């Protein structure tokens, strides 16, 4: 994977659980970004292929999009790795820790009540990950089984709704490891994550793809229309140049066609 150099501040923040305001404070930013001259992109690594820690930086589909947005706006780029709970709750944006969340995060009504989403940039329904031959082939099979899910995700909701005994994980890497070691019998995550896990871990399989219709979007603070417009301009340019398709192919491999969002959509 491509190595991305980041500032010391971004690397030092990796894995930090930030449930209270920090950094730039809670005063309303004067422009589309918290800090003049900088775009701060919040995400949660590891969450391959969206974002993964690599050496002294990060790589992934979302990292590429964040860098391209900063380049278009003529801003310095910084990736900030914090807990997914801080992202999906809207706290990271409301406390001005960052300007935009690009984190493989599904658009839901509850999340949209706390932040403003861009148009979808990826299709990414849920899937079930198991060891080969585990005997779980549908969501109906989850009842009574130990199932892992990343906390605060739609995967956790689906596992709970289907009667599973759910173990929460702070990141996707720990969740996948738990399936490999037998700590849990299955995990529910987006199909892009499951496909990457199967490719990278011998003995794991994509047990079932679930037609949940999930779509992924980036998010900004409520009312930050200027940054939303910048995102739309960037995505239009990436589509017209073919760069969007190339990035989807690069990072999503065999599920690229299912993940791709067409201009018509």
TrEMBL record:
Principal place of residence: other
Domain of life of the native organism: Bacteria
Classification via InterPro entries: SBP_3_CS, Solute-binding_3/MltF_N
Species of origin: Brevibacterium samyangense
Entry keyword Phosphoprotein: no
Pfam family, one: SBP_bac_3
Keyword Signal carried by entry: yes
Family under the similarity heading: Belongs to the bacterial solute-binding protein 3 family.
Domain Solute-binding protein family 3/N-terminal positions: 38-255
Protein name: Basic amino acid ABC transporter substrate-binding protein
Subcellular location per the Swiss-Prot or TrEMBL entry: Cell envelope
Keywords annotated in UniProt: Signal
Signal peptide: 1-27
């Amino acid at each position: 994977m491509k190595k991305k150099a980041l500032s010391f501040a971004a690397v030092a923040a990796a894995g930090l659980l930030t449930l209270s305001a920090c950094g730039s404070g809670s005063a309303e930013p004067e422009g589309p970004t918290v800090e003049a001259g900088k775009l701060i992109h919040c995400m949660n690594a590891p969450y391959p292929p969206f974002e993964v820690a690599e050496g002294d930086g990060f790589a992934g589909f979302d990292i590429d999009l964040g860098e391209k947005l900063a380049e278009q706006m003529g801003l310095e780029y910084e990736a900030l790795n914090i807990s997914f709970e801080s992202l999906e709750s809207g706290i990271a944006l409301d406390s001005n820790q960052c300007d935009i969340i690009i984190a493989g995060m599904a658009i839901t009504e509850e999340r949209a009540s706390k932040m403003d989403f861009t148009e979808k940039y990826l299709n990414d329904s849920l899937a079930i990950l198991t060891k080969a031959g585990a005997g779980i082939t549908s969501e109906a099979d989850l009842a009574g089984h130990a199932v892992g899910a990343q906390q605060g995700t739609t995967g956790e909701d689906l596992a709970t709704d289907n009667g599973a005994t759910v173990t929460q994980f702070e990141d996707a890497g720990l969740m996948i490891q738990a399936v490999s070691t037998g700590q849990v019998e299955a995990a529910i995550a987006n199909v892009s994550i499951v496909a990457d896990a199967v490719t990278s871990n011998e003995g794991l399989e994509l047990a079932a793809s679930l037609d949940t219709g999930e779509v992924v979007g980036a998010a900004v603070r409520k009312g930050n229309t200027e940054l939303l417009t910048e995102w739309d301009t960037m995505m239009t340019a990436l589509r017209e140049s073919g760069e969007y398709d190339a990035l989807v192919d690069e990072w999503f491999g065999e599920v690229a066609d299912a993940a791709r969002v067409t201009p018509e959509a």
